[in-house]
Amino acid sequence: MEKEKILTAYKKLRKQVKKGCYTNENTLLLGEIYLSSLNFLKKMKRVTLISKVQNKSYFAFTSNDQLSRAVNQDLFMPDYSKWEQLRNGMEINDITSLSNNEIQKILYSMAVSFCASIDLIKKRDQKTPGTFFEYFIAYFFSWRVGVEPRKYIQLLNIDAIEKKLPTDFIFNLGKNQKKFHLPVKISTRERAIMLWAHQRLIDGVYGSSRFIGTPVIMTETKTSQSKKEVIEICLPEQWMLYQNFIAQLKRIYYLDLPEAYKNLDKKSPSLIVKPFSEFFEEWQRL
Amino acid sequence: MEKEKILTAYKKLRKQVKKGCYTNENTLLLGEIYLSSLNFLKKMKRVTLISKVQNKSYFAFTSNDQLSRAVNQDLFMPDYSKWEQLRNGMEINDITSLSNNEIQKILYSMAVSFCASIDLIKKRDQKTPGTFFEYFIAYFFSWRVGVEPRKYIQLLNIDAIEKKLPTDFIFNLGKNQKKFHLPVKISTRERAIMLWAHQRLIDGVYGSSRFIGTPVIMTETKTSQSKKEVIEICLPEQWMLYQNFIAQLKRIYYLDLPEAYKNLDKKSPSLIVKPFSEFFEEWQRL
After folding, report:
1. What is the per-residue pLDDT for B268?
2. Closest Cα partner for B202 from B249, B147, B258?
């Protein structure tokens, strides 16, 4: 059954990521997970959700009274061959045969199809989608920047004890080279302040902006199971304060970019929130 | 039925808090909630939990296969008359007839008995206990410092637009007087960094330590329903980094103080974590 295929491939992925994020094994496993998820979801009914999000339409998959998370109608492109095209491009280090918009749709479709499948296979499992999404994003990030991440930073304590602090993904491109701080979240909603707080901590240890903060978030939607309604929870004014008073994040990337965050780059201090696909072409200028 | 009594009194409390935190109505309602919760729990079975927390024993209430949160055996003192004694003391502004230890037990018992009741009455309702606990702590805090809290701060933006930022409780004792920043949480676990981040934000707007940060947390325990096991999730090393690099919290108060946080005041920079009952005698020295 597709269900077992998804879970088995995911289990293997969890083991493999210990050996590295961007590896041949993971390329195969992500493909397997995507294909099984698409086949699994193909058999499920779709319910159109009442969208309280301007200019965006959402649906959910449903099975046995369970409802999946909201899926963005425009971004969902369940076409496996597009992933093959992206994968082949990544192998030769040239993905320009795909537009940013197409890349965004491929990434969104891969991430949401696994998460929506888990919503229907398991009950109230938040952890599996969250963990998957972390390694999913780290896979693409790692490919692009060409190094593997760590999940800790070294601390040089004044009290002389050298310690490791567990963190989000850290990509260190080498001595005097760029260093990225990559938190990955399914959504942040009222917990977004944590992104800035972690950046501040790393700034505190290593100096302001030594590490370039580039969080990647999937979406800020929230689905009401009973009302079959989807809303987007955004706090743009608070975000500007965080950017002002806590730390500076260089970019915030989304797979399903909320309208409310699109124009924060026109404010001061500017905060640039973009589709994640744009990272692939702009990363060297960050 | 007791169940209805608890819910009705809670509903009234939610309305009343809009008029103020420390009021005669709330005194009556908190008493009603406590008494109904004790009567409700009296009829429930108790299950001893496997405690992975050193030197602490926990049990849970159970009904129809549902298990309540963990209750600290030593702190739970289901004696309504003790609350009456505290309440009478508060009325004449003298609670010295009770020891700190007794006050701690009264507060813990009141808070945990409502939360445990809700665990059995509702399914997976995190919001009701969280909201109750906020107003419960604000009630005692407000009594002690003699002013009512606000839940926002005024921002003076350089771009001239005056705005309100929603916050945790803010107690402003007056011009040139102490100002407290009181976040209230059932538990913080891996989200504790938010306490420091909010303090930093307020420091940023008003200047370092203009507002005295004194979060109050109930407990850091986590109960496994299936294993009937209770653990405590503490991150003392991370906390020291937050205190070092994000902001300075003056105190962190607990109703069920974790062992791992007791001795952080011996480190540098010191972080003083204490039973909440001690606030009542030390608040003027903060």
Report:
1. 74
2. B249
Hey, what amino acid is at B76?
F
Whether the predicted interface score ipTM is above 0.90: no
The model's pTM is: 0.91
Tell which residue, A234, A286, A243, A282, has the closest CA to residue A262: A234
Q: Which of A167, A245, A267 to mutate to test the interface with B (most CBs of B within 10 A)?
A: A245
**Assigned token pair, B35:** 């008494």
With contacts defined as CB-CB under 8 Å, which chain B residues touch A208? none
Pair of tokens at residue A131 = 């963990």
> How far, in whole angstroms, is CA B231 from its chain's centroid?
19
Please check the confidence at residue A155 and state whether its pLDDT lies above 80. no
Of A155, A191, A244, the CB nearest to B191: A191
CB contact under 8 A, B245 and A155: no
CB pairs under 8 A, 24+ apart, for A41-49? A41/A78, A41/A113, A41/A116, A41/A117, A42/A78, A43/A2, A44/A68, A44/A120, A47/A228, A49/A223, A49/A228, A49/A229, A49/A230
> For residue B269, what pLDDT is reported?
76
pLDDT over 70 (residue A21): yes
> Domain locations in chain A?
2-144, 147-285
Question: B200 to chain A: nearest residue by CA?
Answer: A246
CA–CA separation, B130 vs B69, rounded Å? 13
User: C-alpha distances in angstroms, B57 versus B72, B73, B231, B256?
Assistant: 6, 5, 11, 12
Confirm or reject contact between B241 and chain A (CB < 8 A). yes
The DSSP bridge partners found for residue A166 are A152
Helix count (H) and strand count (E) of chain A?
Answer: 8, 15
- Compute the mean pLDDT over every residue in chain B, rounded to the nearest whole number: 94
| Contact indicator for B254, B274 with CB cutoff of 8 Å | yes
Cα torsion angle, B271, B273, B277, B278, sign: negative
| Single-letter residue type at B59 | F
Q: B177-215, pLDDT tens digit by residue?
A: 999 999 999 999 889 999 999 999 999 888 888 999 999
CB of B78 closer than 8 Å to CB of B113:
yes
Contacts of B241 in chain A (CB under 8 A): 155, 165, 201, 204-205
Helix axes A193-206, B236-245, angle to 10 degrees: 80
> Is residue A74 less than 8 Å (CB to CB) from chain B?
no
Examine the pLDDT at A162 and tell me if it is beyond 70: no
Distance from C-alpha of B215 to C-alpha of B192, rounded to nearest angstrom: 10
| Bridge partners of residue A51, in order along the sequence | A230
Q: What is the largest CA-CA distance in chain B?
A: 60
Q: Do B246 and A197 touch (CB under 8 A)?
A: yes
Beta bridge partners of A67: A62
Q: Which residues pair with A50 in a beta bridge?
A: A229
**Cβ atoms < 10 Å from Cβ of A173:** 12
CB contact under 8 A, A197 and B200: yes
